[in-house]
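User: I'm putting together a small comparison set for a docking exercise, and I want a reference complex before I start. The sequence is below, and the ligand is ME8. Could you produce the 3D structure with the ligand included, as structure tokens?
Assistant: Of course. I'll restate your input first, then give the structure tokens for the complex.
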Amino acid sequence: MNRFYVTTPIYYVNAAPHIGHAYTTIVADVVNRFYKLIGHETFFLTGTDEHGDKIAQAAREAGLDPKDYVDRNSQLFKDLWPRLNISNDYFIRTTDESHKKVVQYILQKVYDSGDIYFGSYRGLYCIGCERFFMERELVDGKCPDHDREPIVREEENYFFKMSKYQDWLVKYIEDNPDFIQPERYRNEVLSFLKEPLEDLCISRPRERLSWGIPIPFDDRYVTYVWFDALINYVSALGYPSGELFKRFWPVANHIIAKDILKPHGIYWPTMLKAAGIEPYRSLHVHGYWKIEEAKMSKSKGTVVRPLDLVEIYGLDAFRYFLLRDMVFGLDANFSEEALIQRLNSDLANDLGNLFSRTLAMVKKFCNSLVPPLNEAETEKEKELISQVDLTKEEYEKSMKEFAFHKALMSVWELINRANKYVDETSPWELAKDETQKGYLNKVLRLLLEVNRIVAVLVAPFMPDTSEKMLTRLGIKKKALELRWNDDLKLLGLKEGSKVEKGKALFPRIDIDAWKEKQKEESKEPGNGEDKIDEAKKMENVISIDEFSKIKLVVGIVLEAESIPKSKKLLKLVVDIGEKRQVVAGIAKDYKPEELIGKRVVIVANLKPAKLMGIESQGMILAAQSPDGLALLTCDRDVPPGSPVS
Ligand code: ME8
């Protein structure tokens, strides 16, 4: 049997869960549900990371014993997940006795094999990250994640010989293109590995930090939090001898955000190698949810709490929005307004409308009974059926690539095709003509079946909605019991069985009223600074008039050359009816010689600017993807200077 093992990071318990934690965990849940749907045996792990400086300090600040503190806060995560419909099989805590034993077992094993040694280290240490930094990793002398200067720290400690495995790791990543995905993060790890790797300090003296797992061969020390935390992925499976470990470790898929790429892409594989454990199968790295293009911040009041949104908009709208609006791998900007727009247009309008109008017609014209399907097919039916096949194919491919937004887009293509089919066949007209009864039945039956197929395809994303739809179609199955081969056949309903119309799946939100309310609230004293400033957000929306001020034209690249000392920039000469010199930040993705003769799209009326001392008289448009840039071009040869509108 095919198997799949999916993990989230184990979250630090010094902060309450926010939308970022919810995103990763919902992604893992969607993936878990998808692999079950296609018939895999799966195991889904999440949990909490509870040791280390940061936690001990937070407990002190809260006036609590560390154990009481972590018990309380771990529970926040444990309680949240069922409310977000998270289908995890196990919840691990690093303070679990069984986990501690495995950490000590691995430490001893690696020590015995000679890959852990005792030494002294002096370096720059960031308390926030709980690790030493190299100078070149700092930005303006500060930790880029915590925006503060690291402290100088010197200590005798235990070190893991990570450097010994550098060449092995480089080769492993090169030989296994799927090991770290998307490609940009694989490249990031490889480029980091171009410099010599240092050994990893893996202990902390107990006199400074007692909140950790004792080093088995020296009780003056506890383990460094990352050495402890990463091991959760195998301890949860009962490593070394557990049955789950044997079954699921070979298919381990870790999901993380880019903040913890280095521990997962470098420390963890080398630790596994040293411990004699096979590397994990794949690491899947996503970007950040940002608020107003910035990091979420407690002090600015921009930390988004999942349950606040779920309460207002419903769980499935929230899950759908997160998976639809972020391209896995890239950063995304969170806004409540975007969520409302998705809810209104994709869920209430497209999906909700298709479902309710189909059932309303079956009620009216077929007495709520599933009609037979026995008329010959016309072109319209063939088109709809071929869209079903296409959607299934694209959906499966995209899900396996973690391109969730694409998978959903392909489902929405089917929904839109089906809505169009209703308009084209006009069942209400067919109903007026007795001789069309057979064809009317066929149209409605096909629509019912498409609704059923849509319900199955959205099940990983919106399990409640899926079950609600299936129940009304007369199918009593839990979302997790659905299976690709049985439940995605074109015909799955029983002729003559009863369907039920029910209420709208997704009530619309009145966006104007919502905006009004936001404005009112931001005027209330005390609210001004904490709330996201709606008016400012609206500045991003432009009118057609404003857009028409931007002059876009087609240009042909005549010359292209690199700019000395710049890794990013190329100097181009482009024919747009006249010659223009343009400096473009595309050198990482395009070689100069590839560009000659290419048709590109240029912003022609941009104020000239100097980049690295070279004048740029325009800007080239390119799409950004997790795998790099892609230039916009024309799919037909048009003369240089042709306007783009
Ligand atoms: O790093 N956008 O825990 P952590 C998207 N304990 N995802 C986000 C996010 C955002 N703005 N903010 C956080 C740790 N995340 C360690 C992990 S694993 C062996 C140990 C998510 O609580 C994302 O998954 O800081 C990120 O990698 C994780 O939370 C970091 O969680």
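The longest strand covers residues 116-126. The two ends are 53 Å apart (CA to CA).
User: Thanks, that's exactly what I needed.
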